Amino acid sequence: MKKYAALILILLVAPVTASADDKSDVLDIVERYGDLENDLEAQSRLMHPDRIYITGGLRQTDEAKNMINQITGREANESLNGGKTKFITTIEDPIVSIHGNVAVASFVRWWNVYPNGKTPNQSAPTWVTLVLIKDQSNWLISHTHQSPVGGN
Length: 152
Fold this sequence. Notes:
The chain is an alpha+beta fold. It has helices at 2-35, 40-44, 63-81; strands at 47-55, 58-60, 86-99, 102-114, 121-122, 126-135, 138-148.
């Protein structure tokens, strides 16, 4: 009888532990997503190859081309400014829900942007929703949707 009680206890606790670990892993990806804004190539390794990116009224479905455009645009701006731009992102109030091998993360983000030779600026707060897929043991961002706080 004790053997069965121990087995039942393990089965009841195991899913909670896995879910807590998954939630922590997803929150880590959310923080890294923001922290890697200065290294778009490293940030791209957080993305699933079929990631969809929606922001500013645009929808991009080719992740490889999306990253090429982002990196090339960043390099062009930095060339015009005469040096690197530093980005510091703030992520607040992340909410994560796990549904098997799919996670949804929602949070508020804004950027402090420090372009070389220009006046620093802060973006307006933005709602961000990430959908992540667990690919084997790694969570990857499969969908990103951003919109201004307060609507369009």
